[in-house]
Amino acid sequence: MLSVALLFVLGHTCFVAAQADTPVAKLDNATVYGFVNDYVSEFLGIRYALPAERFRHPQDPAPYEGTINATDYGPACPEQDSILSSTPDVAAIQLRDPALYSLPTVVHDEDCAFEFGNTLTYEAQSIRIVERSIALGTPVMVVSMNYRVSGKEIELHASSTYLLLSAFGFLPGREVLEAGVGNLGLLDQRLALKWINKYIGAFGGNSSQVMLWGESAGSISVAMQMLAYGGNTTDNYFQAGFMQSGAIIPVGSLENGQVYYDFLVDETKCSGSADTLECLRELPYETLKDAVDKSPNAFSYQSLILAYLPRRDDSFLPDDPLKLVQAGRFANIPTVSGNCDDEGTVFAVSQYNVTTDALFRDYVSEIWLPSVPSEELEPLWTHYPSDPSQGSPFNTSIFWNIYGQFKRMAAFQGDAVFQAPRRYFVQNLSEKVKTWFYLSKRAKNDFPFFTGSFHGSDLTSAENFLDDHIINFAVTHDPNTGNGVNWPEYTVQSPQAYTFPPTAGSLPIVTQDDYRKDPMEYLTNISLEYPI
């Protein structure tokens, strides 16, 4: 359902406690009861929108009345290929908070490939951030939300921010464009941000100090919210962004994904309908979800060429993301953006039959870049050669090439989706706002060695080396923590990277964001002209 979750520390005078261990808040004419987890107050599963109608815009909730029991997450949104229980009604928010006055608010948005992820999945991470912020003496509130992703419909609620994407939230196609119902997952998120702006004060949060924080597709969603309506918005729902392994993506129009719309229509036997979109709306949930689950996903053969993801809809995203950034059409807020060194390794495992140079060329030209003329692809084969020592995991000589073109495939995919778009994003962003970049090489020497500093490895490290930076950025809009190593601002003239070396516990060093300069410039130029 569309809901939110909130976490915070006890003690805010806005709370009227029925019992010493029962935090209470007022929303409109309703009394909301949460619970205490150690010394962190939690409010879970608060609806931030009316129950979502399939392939239609989310709607504001009615004024709250009566008593709201906010002690359970409620169901997750439908997710692609998920084994978790889900429901088409998922609009909820979760809040975790130290219950102090006017707290900086971290809106946590985590999702995997716009296909799966929910607030419950990452509860421990949100609680950890709240507890660490208390230990630092700079307490923050964490809010997370469920929203529609590839396999899901949701009932909109306020919760620790998670982006769930898929056909339910990111259906592509000409019919979707003409009906004006593209990017519903992003619209769900926007409505949750509106809810936070209106109601977070009731829980002790500060609506004027909201930071969006995301990882993977959640991080991409943060970037998409910065591009919303071409940056031409006065709602001021958030004032900073912290992005891990994701920024803008090289996508074009909703029409570019027509093949996936047509697949669902054929698979569900809606092809004979006069109005195929309405037919998809009226299908039994399980029938549609079964068809969605047959669509390609991030770990299938076509990998990061996803079926369901944000695309230009001529409204929320009025142009291709790279072109919006090129034109400076984004929210002017301080931003941290980061990458792991080997973003593509986990996504390159599925192409194990691509064992020769010819097969690699066929794969890229047929699946990734079918609209690019063959002569314009020639530089790519040189920029991303067969030599395993030039591939990913980087700086590992000829080792860990688990199949013929694995390291080449991993280097290309990681740069095409994560590294090159991120670099273009921060280069343009830094011309207008304060910007910082980090590069994580943690996990480079860990088992299984072929994954290197894989996508998400900055989250899985037991040392949680980014937590203090995240908290300080939420509080001060500066990621520096006083650890003895200055994290310099990023500029085009001096593109510095705050780099975490492979050894766990080692201090970061400052390097230059100039690795694979020519290959990434080439990929950016191709993406501007031939978006996926």
From TrEMBL:
Domain of life of the organism encoding this protein: Eukaryota
SUPFAM superfamilies in the cross-refs: alpha/beta-Hydrolases
Pfam families in alphabetical order: COesterase
Residues covered by the Carboxylesterase type B domain: 22-496
E.C. no: 3.1.1.-
PROSITE patterns the record matches: CARBOXYLESTERASE_B_1 (PS00122)
Major enzyme class: hydrolase
Keywords: Hydrolase, Signal
Signal sequence bounds: 1-20
Any one GO molecular function term: hydrolase activity
Family statement drawn from the similarity comment of this UniProt entry: Belongs to the type-B carboxylesterase/lipase family.
Annotated protein name in UniProt: Carboxylic ester hydrolase
